[in-house]
Design a protein that fits this description.
The chain is of the alpha/beta class and 229 residues long. It is built from 8 helices and 8 strands; from the N terminus they run E-H-E-H-E-H-E-H-E-H-E-H-E-H-E-H. It has helices at 19-25, 46-53, 77-87, 105-113, 131-143, 157-172, 189-198, 219-228; strands at residues 11-16, 35-39, 60-63, 93-97, 117-124, 148-154, 179-185, 203-207. Strands 7-6-5-4-3-2-1-8 form an 8-stranded parallel sheet. Strand 6, helix 6 (157-172) and strand 7 form a beta-alpha-beta unit. The longest helix is centred in the C-terminal third of the chain and has 16 residues, at 157-172. It is globular, with a radius of gyration of 16 Å.
Length: 229
């Protein structure tokens, strides 16, 4: 379903990584989750994926990662571009790693012509980005006119305080007009995702089946918990 995602509020994103999860996502309504992320790198048959995506009734984020970025398989840049173009007509946002923005300049241009928003993301699955690294990443996201700046990291309690300060500073100052999506994985992942969602993170990810990473909520549970806060 091609629908604009409301980035003025916290959205719960259900991540579909295979056909089984996507079949379940076809039953979701906007009361269950706000968005479905299609991790196209987890699917083998793109024709089948295209048909299944058409049956979704919530907005879509399209992501195509290589294994070097935490994806499910090795995919060439050329093939990733082809997959993006195939599914762009159905997407509301696409997610591209900030380090690879230049490699996908043509995809970004086409996305913008279709009024598809851009998420510039950075995933650190080992530790926490430094403040200087975050500043540089934000500069890259700003230069590419991203709609959302997304950061995922393994965070200690001290790091969570730092990320929270960063989120609030970005929200209350002129440091960036972009929306933020922040989350951590690991021991404090679940706590951080609830907190960040309530304090300004606009895209907040959860699983459809059992979580694949520590600290992740099931998306439908996440949505219900946010209603209570």
């Amino acid at each position: 379903m091609k629908t604009k995602i409301d980035l003025s509020k916290p959205n719960v994103v259900a991540v579909a990584t295979n056909e089984t999860e996507l079949r379940k996502a076809q039953h979701f309504r906007i009361t269950d989750v706000d968005v479905v992320e299609i991790r196209a790198d987890g699917f083998k048959n793109m024709e089948t994926l295209e048909k299944m995506v058409k049956r979704l009734s919530v907005p879509i984020i399209l992501t195509v990662r290589d294994k070097s970025e935490g994806g499910f398989s090795k995919i060439t840049i050329k093939r990733r571009r082809e997959i993006f173009r195939l599914l762009l007509p159905r997407a509301s946002l696409i997610d591209i790693e900030l380090a690879q923005m230049n490699l996908f300049a043509d995809v970004i241009k086409e996305a913008r012509s279709r009024k598809v928003g851009i998420i510039g993301s950075n995933h650190n699955l080992v530790d926490m980005q430094t403040e200087s690294q975050l500043v540089e990443l934000l500069k890259v996201a700003t230069a590419h006119k991203c709609d959302v700046f997304k950061v995922v990291a393994v965070a200690s309690p001290k790091d969570l305080v730092y990320l929270l300060r960063w989120l609030l500073m970005a929200k209350s100052s002129s440091m960036s007009s972009m929306k933020m999506s922040l989350m951590s994985i690991g021991e404090l992942g679940k706590v951080s995702r609830l907190l960040f969602a309530r304090l300004g993170s606009v895209l907040n990810y959860g699983s459809i089946d059992e979580p694949r990473v520590r600290g992740q909520w099931k998306a439908t549970c996440f949505k219900n918990l946010l209603r209570e806060l």
